[in-house]
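Try it yourself: sequence plus FE2/S2 (inorganic) cluster, in.
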Amino acid sequence: MKRREFLRDAVRGFFIALAAFFAAVLWYIYPSRMQEKKVRYFFLMDEADLPRKGVRKVDFSYDLGERRISSRVYLAASGKGITIFSPVCTHLGCMVNWDSNRREFLCPCHGGRYAMDGTVLGGPPPRPLTELPWKVEQEKVYVGIAV
Ligand code: FES
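Structure, out:
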């Protein structure tokens, strides 16, 4: 093996090892982002308790392995039906609140504003509130969470 080939292979090997190292670091720091998330459905409420009109905040919790997770969603009921929104602002992840006087979701962090249907009305959010899948089985409402 010539000296030039040896150096080329050594440099290539170094960069491959460096890339593998950074991939391992990212996997360690952000394991949930590196893995495919799966939607699982968790009990939210009885079907009879679904709102007929307006927006309702629902706090609920579910078991994920050994952990008990507390969570929140917003149910928006209109003539078009019911939509369940994640309360996580699409800008930088703060929790939005429903302002019943203004009839808007407001983000306390940077002034993001969303309409009742989740569309952006103002501020920095780049996209609408995230709609969550949901279903009714045997008169129980289940909401889909990516875990
Ligand atoms: Fe909501 Fe910035 S995090 S507007």
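One thing you can check immediately is this: The helical segments are 3-29, 31-34.
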